[in-house]
Design brief:
disordered N terminus; Outer membrane efflux proteins (OEP); 6 strands; two-stranded antiparallel sheet; alpha+beta; 472 residues
């Protein structure tokens, strides 16, 4: 009986695609959708991956900020060097006992050169990139919310699918009850050769029974798939069991007009935060690329320390001995990098990235309202459909009860019961499917508008850092 099972076929495919995926000896706890969502967000590897991107962005900002502070470069060398003695005066002439052209024994030497540099002013090379890195943190943080939205939608699909499958199993019990009553009547009346039943009625009844059993198998498998999907999404092992409510909540009309939800999306969608902060970051990177054309001013301390046993060093201030000397002192300097096209190309790249984000923003401004409108339309459509099918389902139930009553008092036929049973199966299946589609559409609308962000768990704010020394 395809009319009993057509919504379960849709259920199975939706749940299977939504996620892949329990066990206490006592009665397992009942979990609501918000509880399952909370567990899934804490467990989700996808969310944790996105949060790692935030940590990476924070580390990148710390790296850029590090350029504001002094940097120490040191080089230590060691090796062999000829021995050397100081020159002497012989016969009123300078005599070099160990000239450079000859080797008079070997000794070892060690030398340390160091340079401590503190940036003073860089025309924004550091400050612009640090601000851009801070904007990038906001972009990655908003990206976490887009990942959470996907997880929430997957959990919602599996949750509503599981509840729908449970209601399908309840529909099977109802159908079996009606078929059992009909079978009892047919058997009893055929035994007395009553004209109220036909010889073909048992076969027709068997067809219905086969359809109901097919539907029962589909509902049972749909429930298993949805349950395992939820277990996987919340990180439960196969031995950790839980229950969900037995019925889907009654639908309510959308809380506002379409324009209200479009404005909500423009305010709450993380994509707009990403585009806004990303655009600001790219603008800062363009400024930083321009600053690369200008020099860097710095202060510093430079020094050296070298020694070699077996070598004597002259105290002549104009004489430098690389292997045997020491000195240090403060300096002021300017560093200016020139190239023939590299800086210009980097500036063009930064501008291209900025233009790309500007186009993406325009695309989002066009596409997101359409996405919201489609989700809003589905909510409205399925709300009205569920209300209509509820009316059909209630009256179909009255119809089948009346058909049994009329048959019992001789005013109806078994054909009337069969027709009522068919219509009841169709009406109940369509009602449950409309109810499922309504809740799924609400979940899609919450994702499309960003409304889910209002119910996300709050995260502890990062600790404030002490301001460091500034360098532009």
């Amino acid at each position: 009986m395809y009319y009993w099972g057509r919504f379960v076929g849709i259920l199975a495919s939706i749940v299977f695609l939504s996620a892949a995926g329990g066990a206490a000896a006592q009665e397992p706890p009942e979990m609501t959708l918000p509880q399952l969502i909370s567990l899934a967000l804490k467990f989700s590897p996808q969310v944790k991956t996105s949060q790692s991107d935030v940590t990476l962005a924070e580390a990148q900002k710390a790296e850029v900020r590090g350029y504001r502070f002094p940097q120490l470069d040191a080089v230590a060398l060691g090796g062999l060097v000829p021995k050397a003695d100081l020159p002497r005066i012989v016969n009123n002439r300078i005599f070099y006992p160990d000239p450079k052209s000859k080797i008079h024994g070997m000794t070892v030497f060690g030398r340390l050169d160091f340079r401590l540099i503190q940036p003073l002013y860089t025309f924004g090379k550091i400050s612009h990139r640090e601000k851009a890195a801070a904007k990038n943190i906001k972009v990655k943080t908003a990206k976490v919310d887009t990942t959470r939205a996907e997880v929430i939608l997957h959990v919602s699909k599996a949750f509503y699918g599981l509840v729908l499958a449970q209601q399908g199993e309840d529909a099977v019990r109802d159908a079996r009850g009606y078929l059992s009553d009909a079978k009892e009547r047919i058997t009893r009346l055929l035994a007395v050769k009553s004209a109220s039943v036909k010889d073909t009625d048992p076969y027709r009844l068997a067809v219905y029974e086969g359809g109901v059993e097919k539907f029962a198998a589909e509902a049972e498998e749909g429930a298993k798939v949805a349950y395992r999907a939820l277990q996987a999404l919340i990180g439960y092992s196969p031995k950790q069991e839980f229950r969900v409510p037995l019925e889907l909540p009654e639908p309510t009309p959308p809380a506002g007009k379409l324009d209200h939800f479009v404005l909500m999306a423009l305010e709450l969608r993380p994509e707009f935060t990403m585009l806004k902060e990303g655009k600001a970051a790219r603008e800062l990177l363009v400024k930083a690329a321009k600053a690369d054309y200008y020099p860097d001013f710095f202060a510093g301390v430079i020094g050296f320390l070298a020694g070699a046993p077996g070598r004597r060093t002259s105290q002549d201030p104009f004489h430098q001995d690389y292997f045997n000397e020491a000195g240090a002192g403060p300096v002021l300097g300017i560093k200016w990098h020139f190239d023939f096209g590299i800086t210009k190309a980097k500036l063009r790249q930064a501008r291209a990235e900025l233009n790309k984000l500007q186009h993406q923003k325009r695309t989002a401004l066009m596409g997101i309202p359409i996405q919201v409108a489609k989700a809003y339309g589905k909510v409205t459509e399925n709300y009205r459909a569920s209300k209509g099918m509820l009316k059909a389902y209630v009256n179909a139930r009255r119809w089948i009860i009346t058909a049994f009553s009329n048959f019992d008092i001789g005013l109806g036929t078994m054909t009337d019961i069969f027709v009522a049973f068919e219509r009841y199966g169709i009406a109940r299946g369509d009602y449950l499917l409309a109810l499922f589609n309504y809740h799924l559409a609400v979940a899609e609308l919450n994702k499309a508008t960003g409304a889910y962000r209002r119910t996300l768990p709050k995260e502890a704010p990062p600790k404030a850092k002490k301001p460091g020394r500034a360098a532009g």
